[in-house]
Amino acid sequence: MNASQVDGDLPVRMGGGEMFDRIAKRYDRMNTLLSFGLHHLWRGRLIRAMALSSGDEALDVACGTADVAIAAATTHPKVQVTGLDPSVGMLGVGEEKVAAAALTERLTLTVGDAQCMPFDDDRFAATAISFGIRNVPDRALGLREMARVTRPGGRVCVLELGVPRSGLLAPLARLHVRFIVPLLGRLFAGKDEYRYLQESVEGFPSPDEFAALMAENGLRDVTIQPQSFGAAHLYTGIVV
């Protein structure tokens, strides 16, 4: 992430770049705690869903500390990966991890907004966003942007948390989101930031509603794959 890639006037969006700056150093640990480590399993499925091939270029939107981008570049040694995020603090942590993984030649991190991405049309073979779409103020616009920068026939893959609305685990999942998440936030991070996480997860549309939103904004053949009894969902759509 060099100086030319940072727009000092970039508006704070996607839940607030400044908010994520404050928790950047603790973000990876909190992800592991909040998901009981299951996010590693979900991430592997997300990367497989992108269906990348040798010579492709992939985009990770709301890349945070670059875990998905690094995993994609590591899994596919002949793929170029770009990560985009509004938080300079998160990208700073990501840059350290990219350098440690010796991926600086194939992985670029850029400051930017999911609603107005600084990329040409049809550039990427596949685009992913994990645990970030709920933070985009205009989700429909974010989906249209992801479809715009992905070539026709390419895939847009969305991994997002959710609260199961039915089934045996639904009460436990609601307990986790409403009480355990804020408690961990108070203990290990900023209570305001993790109250926001709780509210954003609970307020996210149902899987069918979100899949319909994808279908309305440039994607076809949208599929839904529940993860860990509905604690998260993996959505995949093909760019029209």
Describe this structure in words.
The structure is a single chain. With 240 residues, this protein is of the alpha/beta class. 42% of the residues lie in helices and 22% in strands. It has a 7-stranded mixed sheet with strand order 3-2-1-4-5-7-6, with helices on both faces. α4 (67-75) links the parallel β1 (57-61) and β2. α7 packs antiparallel against α8 (191-202). The longest helix has 19 residues, at 170-188. The chain starts with 16 loop residues before the first helix and ends with a strand.
> What is the alpha-carbon Rg in Å?
17 Å
Shape: globular
Strand order of the largest sheet: 3-2-1-4-5-7-6
CATH topology: Rossmann fold
CATH first level: Alpha Beta
Assembly type of the chains comes to single chain
- The topology string of helices and strands comes to HHHEHEHEEHEHHHEE
CATH architecture: 3-Layer(aba) Sandwich
Beta-strand content: 15-25%
* Count of strand segments: 7
Roughly what is the average pLDDT, rounded to an integer? 84
Gap from first CA to last CA: 31 Å
- How many domain units? 1
The stretches of 5 or more residues where confidence is low (pLDDT under 50) are 2-15
